[in-house]
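Quick one: FHA domain-containing protein from Nonomuraea rubra, structure tokens please.
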Amino acid sequence: MDVPDSLARGVAPAPPGTLHARSVNGGVEMPPRPGLTVRFGRGERPDVDLCVGEDDLWVSRRHGELTFSKQRWWLRNTGQQLLRLPRGRLMHAATKAFPLAPGYTPVFVRGSGFREHLVELYVTGHDEERAPRRRAATLPPRRWPLDDDERLLLVVLGQRYLLYEEGPRPLSYRQAAEQLAYLRPGGDWRERRIENRIETVRRRLDAGGFPYPLTHDKAAGGPSDNLLHNLLRGLVESTTLVPPDLDLLEDDLESLPGEEGPAG
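--- reply ---
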């Protein structure tokens, strides 16, 4: 959801704490009044204030609600399916109410099949004196520094990510070693050396504020399988690695080494 239209037009903005909620079926604007509750779901007024997923029987008639209390809007799941918030946060009907921060929060209601129904929430903050910046230069995504060998290695490991496959996983270190030995004969592409090089990249980018976890929490003893996945996902999302990088492979991508479980 963009900044509310009143802000873009230069009209006096809504007072801080005002809730703007929108779905494909319409939108509502509610003042920050203690005890006020906004309900959304498949049902009709007066049961809900905002219709969501009107033709999807997986969406409850009252699937969620927002209540203003203690100077904040609090989101609760009142439906049978989960709600999904940013950063993968999930909400069940038994989950405690979640406080919305000022600004934009997308909420996804799980529907039938692969459907998800979007509810866009925007809470007006105290610093809403924003002006249109249509002519300003676009800010690029944060791209992460890689040397040539690191880029080649990560493109080989993450070529399925660069093909934008559904649910991609990295090549194993053995598969990468085989392909690199073919692409760059004479190089030292032993599996252990590849693993150590990737660990060096992970630690460096993690220290630089990478958006996904890249190192083990040894105290917690957490699993490590997803660390390489997190690295490749973040590099592709930030456009540090892009599809034209596949030209580095200089070979038919269909002739990959045999399938094997992912490395982590």
